[in-house]
Amino acid sequence: MSKSVVWRASVLHFLADPSQQSSYGEAWEFFEDGALLIEDGHIKNCGPSDQVMNNLPSGTEIKNLPGKLLVPGFIDTHVHYPQLEVLAGCGVQLLDWLNQYTFPAEKKFSDPEYASEVARFFLDQCISHGTTTALVFGTVAPQSVDAFFSEAHQRNLRMIAGKVMMDRNAPDYLLDTPENSYKDSKALINRWHDKGRLSYAVTPRFAPTSSSEQLKLAGQLLREHDGLYLHTHLSENPKEIDWVQELFPDSKHYVDVYDQHGLLGPRSVFAHSVHLCDHSWQRMGSSGSSIAYCPGSNLFLGSGLFNLNKAKAHGIPTGLGTDVGGGTSLCLLNTMKDAYQVSQLREETISPLQAFYLATLGGARALHLEDKIGSFRKGNEADFLVLNPAATPMLEFRTKTTKTLEELLGVLMVMGDDRVIEKTIIMGQEA
Ligand SMILES: [Zn+2]
After folding, report:
1. Are 204 and 210 in contact (CB under 8 A)?
2. Which domains does the chain have, with CATH numbers?
3. Which UniProt keywords apply (predicted)?
4. Do 397 and 415 form a contact (C-beta atoms < 8 A)?
5. Using an 8 Å Cβ cutoff, are 37 and 4 in contact?
6. How far is the centre of ligand 1, averaged over its atoms, from the C-alpha of 120 (Å)?
7. How far does residue 4's CA lie from ligand 1's centre (Å)?
8. Residue 40 CA, ligand 1 centroid: distance in Å
9. Comparing C-alpha atoms, which of 76, 73, 70 is closest to residue 330?
10. What are 269's strand-pairing partners?
11. Which has the closest alpha carbon to 353: 30, 92, 6?
12. CA 146–ligand 1 middle distance (angstroms)
């Protein structure tokens, strides 16, 4: 007998991008008195409670959660688990930040025990912050990725990660070679790709730290295995962009460097993409590549204000990334707030509905996982959150007077943090 559980609360999920629907209401479903029926770890039904509860399989366990809001688990499309300990490293911009804070911290991950300890802590924190799927950087040490995948597999999490490929312009203790990075990545792919809910991402750090030979081998890995991701950084900071032009004088621009090495495509996810020329936008769009928009990191490192409307105009799937440790929090609610604030500065204000879309279905689309996660579509994997709009005295005071769904989401995004995440459910099980 399969085990059924029905969760009764308010329910919200997205069917489309609310900013691009001609008829606004068709982009999401909200059931104030709703219910979510889970069977064998998957979504069986979602709708108004009278409709869902009317037709329950016998023996269904009922969980009543009045006053709570169920949403799909949050998706972090760009984060570095080895950078937890450099969070909030103040005083510098990207290139100095890497040398001063990040590289020394990443050195420690050649120790498998240390890597496992941090991977455990990171995944526990993801769960308590409501992040159920993430696209994750390891370090150059393959052990860092073994440790991460091993911990993620034990928790039955849908996670994507990869070993950093980096053969120049970093301290010697963090460099690999083109051949070793190819061999180590291939061994990790064979060990972990498609194991349970895990997928592998070929992960050159960014163009300045890889030789052309290494980028070519990254492209070769993508062609040799089905379903791999490409995960890297793109056009984050003006000094970085000038440097890329010096290192790759034959390229038209930064996107062209990756393009020349066969790295663009529908499973390629580029973090940042803050400063792109028109041709770069077009090429990102025509290649089907995705963007991880990391507003918290872009603000903290002073990188710039991402143009979300350009990404939409070019049909580029875009999700939100925390980019910890360049970002300042693992919390997607905080990241939504940062995205809102960036949109205000650009005078292209996004709605709270748009922000929640980006953190759920938008992220799933950017990772080509919308047939598995990101919404309460029937058959999807049951990764979801129980949100408590009265999690703190301030939130309770404020949400008591909200009159619309949009207003409530705005308050949760602006005033909320991990205390709002009352429960995180992974494949139907409380984590
Ligand atoms: Zn990053």
Report:
1. yes
2. 4-73+375-430 (2.30.40.10), 74-366 (3.20.20.140)
3. Hydrolase, Metal-binding, Zinc
4. no
5. yes
6. 20
7. 40
8. 35
9. 76
10. 231, 290
11. 30
12. 20
Q: What is the 416 CA–ligand 1 centroid distance (Å)?
A: 24
Burial 131-143, CB ≥16 within 10 A → b, else e: bbbbbbbbbbbbb
Q: How far is the CA of 216 from the centre of ligand 1 (A)?
A: 21
Please state the φ and ψ torsions of residue 77, each to the nearest 5 degrees: -85, 5
Distance CA 81, CA 146 (A): 13
Distance 220 CA to ligand 1 centre (A): 23
Q: Of 14, 39, 45, 49, which Cα lies nearest the Cα of 28? A: 14
Spatial distance between the Cα atoms of 50 and 137, rounded to a whole number of angstroms: 44
DSSP of 215-278: HHHHHHHHHHSTT-EEEEEES--HHHHHHHHHH-TTSSSHHHHHHHTT--STTEEEEE--S--H
